[in-house]
């Protein structure tokens, strides 16, 4: 954030004429998307899934090496340029609008934006860690708002498009383990709901995805049991199907809808005494 | 800049691209847009009425200059027939200006909604291409702004290389700001039309060839569904101007009110609703029925008089007719083939479409002659335009079929027209333009647009690498 934002900053990892995706035509329409937070976990799985389904994607992450490897893997397996890499830190809010414009020009259009970036710093049961809490809000919530505000404006004007926000079951209830994470995800869920209420009337769909446990680095790092954990590929499949059907809120795995329904209705007098 | 981010479509509603739409009213705004593009790295493309069937007036994620605001007719001299107008002026404005004074635009498209800038960029032709050439041959002079910011004036004698390249240049060398054209003298608001049937493709093409010299306009309708011995059957409309004295009351027939197409059918049914009633017929079976009925009706050979507007602007008969092709919209495939090879090539094309179960629902043939413009689409031969309905289930098959068409047409020495074709690959374009032409175009492109600002999606598709 220390650097002053340069409009339409050329990104070192892309932008040469050789790696432009093939143009869309009426008979070869191309769905074009952005995945923010694509280097591993659900993001990488969704990138593989969507490119397999014909999407052309801009993949954003902080880690250049992982991003490049993923793009190469996708472009090799599809035999054409389907994934473009952009190194970006979502906490650099000022850079988001200019990068968005550049990506839309590089892709030649935009149909879907998936905000996947998220960090988790569990403070430990009896500890409090404002630094960690702040980072979680900065990435999980403010990062999403920095990206989705210009995206929402763009889609609203174009009267088309889909926004996918990856929230979490953790946002459905404040629990003892990680208040900061719960808060960031609860706020994200509410933000996405508000966007949905604004944008549906303009032909834009907003999908909130609430994953339970997914076997990613983030979950491996978390303490405690991980019931109903699914592979990232399963989550990616669920998200793709929900995008296709233009759903509003999904849980993945779907059993979490029922689990969270119960948890949300546990009275506070009991919930306060529970150890989870 | 963000405020006007808009989803724009091709004319057939089969393709869309979001862009930053800039309304252009004065030439300084074009220069502003170029400097903005240079600063931001976005592509720029001018757009007129949006009547191209492909991506000629789209640039996904880039800046679109909406030229319709620059639509003033700045000078009209009814003694010489010279008209000067801004590029957003439509053919509708022009003919309505000049006709009451006894003139008519020498070349018009099948719709009057097109703008002058678009017409010059594509170097459009009419049903009189064999006689009058493309619209560019009637341009006396034009001014344009280049992406370098320079304003230039071109005519056949001044900046001649750019005159012949910017007309036909698909808007990729500069933006027209003013055009002076020579109109054609007419002696009546009516035309004499000979309508007669043709039984097959051979008869269709030989009628165009033989009928052309004795007429001012000639056009054929081709039933793309009829097969076997009737392959390529249809109807020819061969038309000529009335000579001086043939119309006893030219002042009356040249009045605009006697030219315009009535908005109602039978005086009661609004034509704007008609496309809803056409939709059920826009499929293989429905078109078979319509074509058969139309062919039977055309068997009566007859001659009649028709107003200029009614004869030329067939595409304006049913407003929004393109919506009758359904949600997937339509594309057009137009090929230009030398007269010696056309019959064999199109026999193969028509049979292939029928074999694939993907016949065109409208086929139109015309007679052409070559012209001197750099990116010319014309040949000494014929053109066949075919409309195809696009659906989610036929895209892949249609795409594969059109690639086969391209091979057949290239082999026959044919060319393609970039106001129409949306699927042509860079390789195909290279093959028919030829290396020499492309090298010349690239040289001019570099001179006019050193930073590569003017890049439509069509440019990226055809000249991209």
Describe the overall structure.
The complex is a heterodimer of chains A (276) and B (465). Chain A is α/β, with parallel strands linked by helices. Chain A has helices spanning 41-52, 64-78, 96-107, 130-158, 179-199, 217-221, 232-244, 255-264, 268-271; strands at 32-36, 56-61, 83-87, 112-115, 162-166, 205-211, 249-252. Chain A has one domain: 3-Layer(aba) Sandwich (Rossmann fold), CATH 3.40.50. In chain A, strand 2 (56-61), helix 2 and strand 3 (83-87) form a beta-alpha-beta unit. In chain A, helix 1 (41-52) packs across helix 7 and helix 4 (130-158) runs parallel beside helix 5. Chain B is of the alpha+beta class and 465 residues long. Chain B has three domains: 2-68 and 444-462, Uridine Diphospho-n-acetylenolpyruvylglucosamine Reductase, domain 2; 70-185, Uridine Diphospho-n-acetylenolpyruvylglucosamine Reductase, domain 3 (2-Layer Sandwich), CATH 3.30.465; 190-424, Alpha-Beta Plaits (2-Layer Sandwich), CATH 3.30.70.2520. In chain B, 30% of the residues lie in helices and 24% in strands. Chain B is built from 15 helices and 21 strands. In chain B, the strands form five sheets. Chain B has an eight-stranded antiparallel sheet with strand order 17-12-14-13-19-20-18-21. Chain B has a five-stranded antiparallel sheet with strand order 5-6-10-8-9. A four-stranded mixed sheet of chain B has the order 1-2-4-3, with helices on one face. In chain B, helix 11 packs antiparallel against helix 12 (395-411). Chain A binds chain B through residues 7-8, 10, 17, 20, 23-29, 101-110, 150, 153-154, 157-160, and chain B through 2-7, 10, 12, 14-18, 39-43, 54-55, 59-62, 329, 331, 390, 395-396, 398-399, 402, 422-423, 457, 460-461, 464-465.
């Amino acid at each position: 954030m220390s650097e002053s934002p340069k409009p339409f900053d050329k990104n070192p990892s892309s932008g040469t004429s050789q790696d432009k995706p093939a143009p869309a035509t009426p008979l070869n329409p191309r769905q074009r998307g952005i995945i923010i937070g694509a280097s591993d976990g659900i993001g990488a799985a969704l990138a593989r899934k969507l490119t397999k389904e014909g999407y052309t994607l801009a993949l954003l992450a902080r880690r250049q090496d992982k991003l490049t490897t993923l793009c190469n893997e996708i472009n090799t397996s599809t035999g054409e340029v389907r994934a473009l890499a952009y190194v970006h830190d979502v906490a650099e809010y000022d850079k988001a609008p200019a990068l968005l414009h550049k990506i839309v020009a590089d892709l030649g259009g935009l149909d879907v934006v998936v905000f996947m970036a998220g960090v988790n710093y569990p403070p430990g049961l009896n500890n409090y860690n404002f630094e960690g809490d702040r980072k979680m809000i900065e990435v999980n919530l403010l990062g999403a708002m920095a990206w989705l505000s210009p995206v929402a404006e763009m889609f609203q004007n174009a009267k088309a498009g889909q926004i996918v926000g990856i929230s979490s079951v953790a946002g459905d209830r404040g629990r003892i383990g990680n208040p900061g994470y719960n808060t960031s995800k609860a706020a994200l869920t509410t933000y996405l709901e508000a966007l949905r209420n604004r944008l549906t009337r303009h032909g834009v769909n907003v999908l909130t995805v609430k994953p339970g446990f997914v076997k990613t680095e983030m979950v491996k790092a978390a303490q405690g049991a991980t019931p109903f954990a699914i592979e990232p590929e399963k989550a990616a499949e669920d998200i793709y199907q929900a995008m296709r059907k233009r759903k509003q809120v999904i849980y993945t795995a779907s059993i979490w809808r029922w689990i969270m329904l119960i948890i949300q209705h546990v009275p506070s007098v009991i919930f306060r005494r529970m150890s989870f | 800049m963000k405020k006007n981010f808009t989803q724009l479509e091709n004319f057939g509603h089969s393709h869309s691209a979001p862009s930053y739409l800039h309304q252009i009213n004065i030439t300084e705004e074009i220069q502003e847009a170029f400097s903005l593009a240079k600063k931001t790295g976005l592509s720029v493309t001018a757009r007129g009425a949006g009547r191209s069937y492909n991506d000629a007036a789209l640039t996904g994620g880039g800046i679109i200059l909406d030229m319709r605001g620059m639509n003033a007719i700045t000078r009209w001299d009814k003694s010489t027939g010279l008209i000067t107008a801004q590029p957003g002026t439509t053919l509708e404005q022009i003919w309505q200006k000049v006709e009451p004074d006894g003139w008519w635009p020498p070349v018009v498209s099948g719709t009057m909604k097109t703008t002058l800038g678009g017409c010059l960029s594509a170097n459009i032709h009419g049903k009189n291409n064999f006689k009058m050439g493309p619209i560019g041959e009637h341009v006396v002079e034009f001014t344009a702004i280049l992406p370098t910011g320079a304003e230039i004036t071109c005519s056949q004698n001044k900046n001649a290389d750019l005159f012949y390249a910017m007309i036909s240049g698909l808007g990729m060398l500069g933006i027209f700001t003013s055009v002076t054209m020579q109109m054609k003298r007419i002696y009546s608001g009516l035309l004499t039309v000979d309508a007669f049937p043709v039984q097959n493709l051979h008869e269709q093409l030989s009628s165009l060839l033989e009928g052309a010299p004795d007429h001012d306009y000639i056009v054929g309708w081709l039933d793309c569904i009829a097969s076997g011995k009737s392959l390529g059957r249809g109807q020819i409309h061969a038309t000529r101007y009335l000579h001086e004295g043939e119309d006893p009351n030219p002042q009356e027939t040249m009045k605009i009110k006697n030219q315009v197409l009535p908005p109602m059918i039978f005086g009661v049914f609004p034509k704007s609703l008609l496309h809803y009633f056409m939709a059920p017929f826009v499929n293989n079976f429905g078109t078979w029925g319509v074509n058969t009925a139309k062919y039977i009706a055309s068997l009566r050979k007859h001659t009649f008089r028709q107003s200029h507007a009614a004869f030329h602007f067939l595409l304006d008969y049913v407003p929004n007719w393109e919506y009758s092709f359904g949600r997937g919209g339509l594309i057009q495939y137009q090929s230009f083939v030398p007269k010696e090879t056309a019959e064999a090539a199109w026999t193969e094309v028509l049979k292939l479409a029928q074999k694939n179960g993907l016949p065109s629902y409208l086929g139109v043939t015309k007679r052409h002659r070559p012209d001197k413009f750099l990116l010319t689409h014309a040949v000494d031969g014929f053109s066949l335009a075919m409309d195809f309905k696009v659906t989610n289930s036929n895209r892949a098959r249609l795409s594969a079929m059109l690639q086969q068409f391209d091979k057949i047409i290239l082999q026959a020495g044919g060319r393609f027209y970039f106001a129409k074709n949306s699927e042509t690959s860079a390789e195909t374009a290279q093959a028919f333009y030829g290396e020499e032409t492309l090298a010349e175009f690239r040289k001019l492109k570099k001179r006019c647009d050193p930073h590569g600002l003017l890049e439509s999606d069509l440019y990226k598709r055809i000249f991209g690498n």
